[in-house]
Amino acid sequence: MNGVIAGISYRALLGRRRIWLLVLLPVVLLALAVLLRVIGADGERATVELMRTFAIGIMLPLLGLIAGTGVIAPEIDDGTVIHLLAKPISRPVIAQTKFLVAASVVALFATVPTFLAAYLLIGLESGVASGFALAALVGGVAYAAVFMLLGVVTRHAVTIGIAYAVIWEGLVGNLVPGARRFSVQQWAQTVADQVSSSFFLSTEIALGFAATALFVVTVGAVVWAGLRLRSFSLTGDE
C-alpha cells in the first residue's frame, strides 16, 4: 500500500459529492429502523427482512459501486491517471492501494450502520446484528474489488455497475435458484446465516463455497485491475 496514493484517493472520494451519497444510504437504513421501531414493527422477522432487502440487497452494492468506481474511474476519465502512472510505483501497488481505500470506506459506511440498525430494533437477539454486520463487511470488500476493476476496464463503469447491481444481484440472484451461487449478495447472506441463529434467516449456499468465492472474486479482481493498469500507456491509450 502506498501512503501518498491512499491519501489522495481518500481526499478524492470523501471530499466530493460522493460523500453525500455514501452518507445518504446509511442514513436511510437507520431512518427505516427508527420508523419500524416507532410503529412497533421491530420484531426479528422485520429486522431480518430489512437487513436482507435494504442493507445487503440495496445499500451494500451501491456503496461498493460508489467507492469502487470512485477511487479510479474519474482519474481515468479526466486523464489525471497518467500522472499517477508516470510515477515510479508499480501498477499492482496502485491497484492494491485503490482497493484498500475503497474497501475501508465501504466497510465503514456499511458495517457500522448495519449493526446499529439491527441493534436498534432487536439488540443482540439471535446474533442478527453481528451476522449482518459481518456480512456487510465481507460483501462490501468484494463489491469494492469488483467495481474498482470495472472502473479500470470500462469508461461506463457506473452505468454497467448499476445494471449489474439491479439486474443480476437484485433480480436474477434473488429469483433464480441456480444464479444464487454466483451472487456476492447471496454469499454475504450465507456468512450472516452462519453467525446468526435466527429462524427467519436461511440460505442455500454452503459456507465453504461462499467464503472461497468471496476470496477468489476479491483477490482476482484486484490482481486483474493491476494487470489492466499495466496496459495503459503514458498517453492514456491501451
SSE order and pairing:
Blueprint: H1 3-14, H2 18-38, H3 44-70, H4 73-78, H5 81-85, H6 91-122, H7 128-153, H8 157-175, H9 184-195, H10 207-230
Helix pairs in contact: 1-6, 2-3, 2-6, 3-6, 3-7, 3-8, 6-7, 6-10, 7-8, 7-9, 7-10, 9-10
Query: Mean of residue pLDDT?
Result: 89
Number-wise, the strands total: 0
Strand content: under 5%
Multimeric state of these chains?
single chain
* Overall helicity: over 70%
Structural class: mainly alpha
Number of helices: 10
Q: Write down the Rg.
A: 18 Å
Number of domain units: 1
What profile does the largest beta sheet have?
none
**Beginning-to-end CA distance, first to last residue:** 25 Å
Q: Summarize the helix and strand pattern as letters.
A: HHHHHHHHHH
Q: Pick out the low-confidence regions.
A: 234-238
- Given the C-alpha coordinates, what overall shape results? globular
